[in-house]
Amino acid sequence: MALHNSLNGRYRPLLNIPCMVDRSYTQGMGQHFSLRNASHIIGTGSNFGYVSSFIHEQNDERELTELEDRVNALKEVVASEESTTEIMSYSEDELLRIYEDLLAPTTMPSVQESQPVQDPRAQEKDSEAVRCIAERLLESDALATSSTSTLSSQEYRPVITRLQEIASSVETLRLSVPTFDSKDKMNQASPAEVPIGLLTNAEWSSLTRTCVTANDGSAAEAVLDVMKRFGASNVDECAIDVLSLHASAGDVASVEQCLQKYAAPSLTDVHRDLHVKAHAKATPPTTFPTSTLDLLHHYEALGTPAPQKSYTRAITSLLSTQSRPAQGLAQAWDLFAHMRYVAHPQPDVALYTLMLRACSHRAVPAEPERALDLFTEMVVDRQLTPTPGAYAAAAYAFARSGERRYVQEAFRLAKEMLDANRDARGRSAFAADRRLFGALLEGAKRIGDLTRTRWILAEMVREMTQRSGEQEVLVNDLIMTHVFHAYAAFKPPFKRSATLIVDEQAPSEPPSLVQAAEHGQPPGLSRTETGLPLTSQGSRFSHIPPQSRGEVAREAKLLFTRIVEDTRAAPSSLDGDGDTIASRPFRHVQLTPRLLNAYLSVHYVHSSFDEWSGLYRTLFDELDVPRNPKTYVEALERCAISQKSERRMALMLADEIWVVWQGIEEAWRTRDNVQQDEAIKMIDARLVERANAAMIRILALTKNLSRALSHVRAFSDHYPPSKLLRISPKHPLRSSRVVLSGAKPLVRLTSTVNVPDDSVPPLLTFNELEVLHHRLLAVGDRVGLGYLKWLCKAYENFLRERRDATMRAIPEGSDSEKPDDVSQPSHES
């Protein structure tokens, strides 16, 4: 016991050791600092309970510390998540702006090439730069303070003259300074070539643009000469502006001179394109663009083909030619295939759009299948985004075919265009313009769908009101021509012959709309003696299409009256906001012969003879609009299909029309003043055929057989069958010889068989003379029958020989070339 007490007293400081141990040490010991070890070190006895309580306290403190650390870690995580949530939260307006940016349509370049519009601020900046140059260089500041309006014509000329004088002085000074070659020998022959910074590059550009804006090509070239003499570094950039000026004017000589002086020998794509543009602008529409095509093939032979834009220009010229339009169309397709084989295998959207328009060319029937293939290739295969012009071109090709399935495809394509690429607010990226509306109206009128025609016209008026009269959606005379043609092609469901007549007397009531229209007295219209409505007096369209011919004529008359009212309104009443636009939707429609012919066609179909004949005699005179050749031809054709009770009056009207037509046809046949008279330019051989065939038919129907035969003989004298053998020579570009190089397309999409002959003179076939043939057969006129048979067979045989001769034709200037088919034509009858 004494030993225990002594040990307890001696080792008491050891019992206090845990109190002095650092907490970190205790925590570091962890589970190894167990109760057993402590008892082994310290011993047993009364101090064991104290050590045990101390260890439990340390464990509790350690657990609390770990719990605090976990709580703090959780607090930090919650705080970080709250801060992240605050950063990533967006308001409704911010989300809308994000979606607007994501769904915003890409800006599409315009297919139609237009002249760059000069920014007024840029022009003012250039004018200010030229004034500063004048202040520095000219002794007198009188011109420097001149107004901007007189700057382009007065100020830059003295500046150019002063620059030329300075350049001459500098060159004289250069010649007076001796130069040394590499062997320290004096050389007086070549002056020192040191650029002189008299003007900055921006000032040179401003001076050049000022001359170009004033359309002063000589002054612009003088600036380029001075720049070259001073050693300016932006001569090439300024030369592009001067070349663009000459190319837009079609000045080929000036363009080639500038290329020789400022661009040769290394021509860029821009230089070649401007060179081609000059040739295309210099070619009149009545001439085949041979020089443009030769230039393209010349660049191909040099191994540096022109850019794709140049081929687009050449194809545009071919499609616009008025001389042999069928051959121009065929050459355009051949050049398109040749370009893809030789120079540019992948056309751009602009060229695809142009070829889609070629599918609905006036020279040939529409080609909807080819248009569908081109559009599919562009959108699906090439994955190009079509422009509104491409949609409109494809829709017009479908609509012009006149087939109901393709017309439906045109409307489907229009819906696809308007529903595609909508933004965050649901607005379409593409807006329907006049071209698309015109294409849809073309299809609706060809299938006689008046319901869609009325809907399209209402949509155009609504769009024009919403856009405050943008030029792209304005209703013009072409749009209204389509509308009236749709009224003429419409077949109303109501037929008087199919109605059930009731004998029971009904109570007296005012005449209904249908009855009044059937009797030619539409309510709500005041009329002149000739039937031309003067005012609409608040009449409105019905929500359903017209149900009878009288209603069709009434609605067309009401629409035409509204057009006349809007076009004749005072100019002061046309300037206003959207309300004025809605009240005068047809104020931009011009009263043209084409529009009046379309309006008359409605009455030709749906009105009586007295109604339409009165309109024909007075409508053009009252509106002060001249008649064109189609006016007379369409009236003659309407007289030829008159009912039996109307034929006597129709013959009297036809005689009046024929007197005027004879003078027009004589002028066309002799080509008198063909370049001055626009009406004569509208006549072609097929129009002459239609007029003569209609007159022969009305004479035959009225039993004027001798007059009809005399008319046929007169026609054969003016256009003998032998005239069919006078064929036009084949163009050298249409040569069928297979070559691997040369100034013509190497790959073709059209052959000689596919190119229609658009230079066939007027002729008569049995279809035009069938009524006369039947009348002569009824009276037993063998002489007349024999003459008709001979004439029809003569035209038929000579037309066949013309086809064979055209197939065997040799191109001009290639006497040694042999045709593909060297077999001689058979003359067996």
UniProtKB/TrEMBL annotation:
* Alphabetical UniProt keywords: Coiled coil
- Which intervals of the chain form a coiled coil? 57-84
Q: Known InterPro entries for this protein?
A: TPR-like_helical_dom_sf
Location of the region described as Disordered in the Swiss-Prot/TrEMBL record = 506-550, 809-829
Bias (Basic and acidic residues) ranges = 815-829
Record carries keyword DNA damage: no
Protein name from the UniProt record: Uncharacterized protein
